[in-house]
Fold each of these.
Amino acid sequence: MTASAHKIFICYGEEEHVDQVDLVQQLNSASGFAYTNTGSCSGEGIDRESLERNILRQIEDAAAVVVPSGMFLTYGFSRWVRFQVAHAKAFKRPIVVLTPHGSVGVPRYLKDYADKTLVWNGNPKWDASDLVDWIRALPN
């Protein structure tokens, strides 16, 4: 990690979600942008309490939390996204919610917690510049 890398927490569930994978690919290809994702799905084989403690440490280490809202609408991810978003607020971490382009909208729960909402189409050709600019504007 370089000195200028931004530490962000990208919400995740018990397994990888396509939105999470696409977002990481897009951020990795953003020109001149260095970041570290403090969120890690490596909870395989550990109990729920330990996994929750790991998530809390990961959120605490981040400057901001990024929520691809499509994950919230997927069965099994809602519970973990709720947990992560609630604790991000408790740690006073800014939250950006990425709403799928053409979607019926961001779930009310995420709207209530979001500091910023950006339209994201989950497409590899999506321009991540709005998200990158938002992250760059955060205090380190």
Note: Residues 12 and 127 are 22 Å apart (CA to CA).
Amino acid sequence: MAAVCGDVVLFKPGSKTPLTAIAIQNIIAPVVDEYDIDGVFNLVIGNRADVGDALLQDRRIPLISTTGSMLNLLRWTSARTIKETFVPPKNIMDT
């Protein structure tokens, strides 16, 4: 949705699911190429301690959306860096 609204997406998957993230990137790549929108979808693979924490603490990133185990860390870090957050409701797929 962010890309449709003109925002850049930086996708950092869980460290245990990088192959799924690469598959998603491969699905999105033809659309990015067809519409010449390089840089709209970016994949970053790495562990939470290195990559995830750096993203959470970067003041240039105004909004972070997360699911799963990152919730408590996200709340703590966001309070320190004054970052907006979005956590989808648990039943988002039921609607």
Note: The helical segments are 18-34, 48-57, 71-81.
Amino acid sequence: MFELKEKSEIFEHAIGSNFFRVLALKPEEFDNLKNALIGVLPDYYVDPQSIAGTLARLGKPAAAQKLLTKIPEVKNIRSGDIGEVLATDYIE
């Protein structure tokens, strides 16, 4: 989807018996990737409030309430989500 391998410089490192690959996005690709993420990220999320509402309408109010009590209230809890989307795309 994002073609990160083609848009990045790849550096390989070995530390002891561990092998690491670092992808550094080429500066000229930043805006393209940013715009692609803006278009894709909303599709990765379903609003927990919407799920809870659906559960309640389906006659599962206890499940809806449980979901609502488990949702983190801190806004930055999703700070790693972009990395997860990019890593998933790279692995696939």
Note: The CA atoms of residues 55 and 64 lie 5 Å apart.
